[in-house]
Design a protein that fits this description.
Oligomer: single chain
Shape: globular
Number of strands: 18
Helix content: 40-55%
CATH class: Alpha Beta
Number of helices: 17
């Protein structure tokens, strides 16, 4: 089946679910270092690690002859450009389940990394390595991206090779529900950057940013926070947005070809000679949607992408925070943000990586908004009232964020403090 605008709209509509069927999907990335020399691991070490994970029931995902990831049930471990690894979890029912999944993965990963002298670093930006020190891997698409991405954003290679984030995937029950959720998640990106900042050290020095990762993403090709995202957005307008969006690459049988001369509209109009003017399929659409690197994006679900990766102690805090807002207390948070000015949001978005909680938005600082939203989220998780075996609801996962608010100190501040004392690289590794 070839793709028309109507079919793209239908694609987004096919993501609509009943509220009772809403799921939560978490993705998180990690840096891996060789503890013997404090350098990022190369592809040969990745293969050793993937091979060792087989004993926990993971199966290899291959591109040609090369192993580029692992699969187990509905979970995948994928390889990022600089050999960061990402867990894409199953779609689960609540934060208790999603967090248990992450901890099971952590247990397996720790067994393997310990044997292989690999250390994990859970930060938004590589605190140690220079760009030219980072090994690559044989995934074909990354070769094309390395060549084409810098043409549209000066820090694009830093994004590829030196960042790690945590993403959350959420559902919608109607087009209006999508619109409200999408407007919320884009409006609170500055607050998310400040609250989850965890990338203050760059090349073993203080960067003068709290979230250097966010600074990088603001200067990455195909990224940012388009003004369109604050308007009365519907599936048709999002379809127009992605149709006019340039293509990053095109999959042709087993090969990837650069698409940087074309938009998806050219593809739909049969104007790409390199692939004999064939028309796009749903698989081409899905690939295109996954290469739009805005702070949030739409597939058959909404993907939230503004959080720095953090340590295992706070991994579930970000997803719990957003689920409390978006699944538990949507109307209250929508009423709060619905009158915010988009230019002021974008200014706060540009300031937040450096100024953190001191950034101004609508006459208040982001600390005020983070505190306010945390309470709304807590009410939302109380409303959901989903209990674990010990009889506790999902609010327990907000404890880390409550400490951040109580002490007005983020992971980025802890990182500066910890590292500045003796500048020991070992202090940057996960304990």
């Amino acid at each position: 089946m070839t793709i028309s605008k109507e079919q793209i709209i239908k694609y987004f509509k096919s993501g609509i679910k009943e509220k009772k069927d809403f799921k939560i999907g978490i993705e998180h990335e990690k840096f891996l270092f060789d503890s013997k020399n404090n350098k990022r691991i190369d592809y040969s070490k990745v293969k050793e690690m993937f091979s060792a994970l087989n004993e926990f029931g993971w199966s290899p995902i291959k591109e040609g002859k090369n192993i580029v990831g692992l699969n187990k049930g509905g979970k995948n471990i994928t390889l990022e450009p600089g050999n960061q690894i990402e867990l894409s979890g199953e779609k689960l029912n609540n934060i208790h389940e999603a967090c248990a999944e992450s901890y099971d993965y952590l247990f397996e990963l720790k067994q393997v990394t310990k044997k292989l002298n690999i250390k994990i670093v859970s930060t938004g930006f590589d605190p140690i390595s220079k760009l030219d020190e980072i090994p690559n891997n044989p995934k074909q698409r990354y070769e094309l991206m390395t060549k084409d991405m810098p043409l549209g954003g000066e820090l694009s290679l830093d994004m590829m090779y030196r960042t790690c984030g945590t993403q959350l995937n959420i559902d919608y029950f109607s087009e209006e529900d999508f619109f409200k959720k999408f407007k919320i998640v884009n409006s609170i990106v500055p607050i998310s950057i400040a609250l989850f900042a965890n990338s203050s050290i760059v090349e073993k020095k203080k960067s003068n940013y709290l979230s250097y990762r966010s600074k990088v993403w603001q200067n990455t090709s195909r990224g940012g926070l388009p003004k369109l995202f604050f308007e009365n957005l519907n599936f048709e307008k999002y379809a127009d947005f992605i149709i006019d969006f340039p293509i990053l690459f095109i999959q042709d049988k087993q090969n990837y070809l650069s698409g940087n001369k074309y938009t998806f509209k050219d593809f739909m109009n049969g104007k790409i000679g390199e692939i004999k003017n064939r028309l796009p399929t749903e698989s081409d659409l899905s690939l295109h949607l996954s290469t739009i690197f805005t702070e949030n994006r739409l597939k058959k679900y909404i993907e939230l992408r503004s959080m720095d990766t953090c340590g295992w102690d706070c991994l579930c805090a970000g997803p719990a925070f957003f689920i409390g807002l978006l699944y538990g207390n949507l109307e209250e948070v929508y009423n709060l943000i619905s009158s915010w000015d988009k230019d002021k949001i974008i200014n706060a978005y540009l300031d937040a990586p450096q100024k953190g909680f001191n950034t101004q938005l609508m006459g208040k600082d982001l600390f005020y908004w983070a505190s306010t939203l945390l309470e709304i989220s807590r009410k939302g998780l109380d409303n959901r009232d989903i209990l674990n075996k010990s009889g506790k609801n999902e609010t327990l996962f907000l404890n880390h964020l409550q400490k951040v608010i109580d002490n007005k100190t983020t992971n980025a501040d802890h990182m500066i403090d910890k590292f500045s004392k003796n500048e020991d690289l070992k202090d940057l590794y996960d304990k």
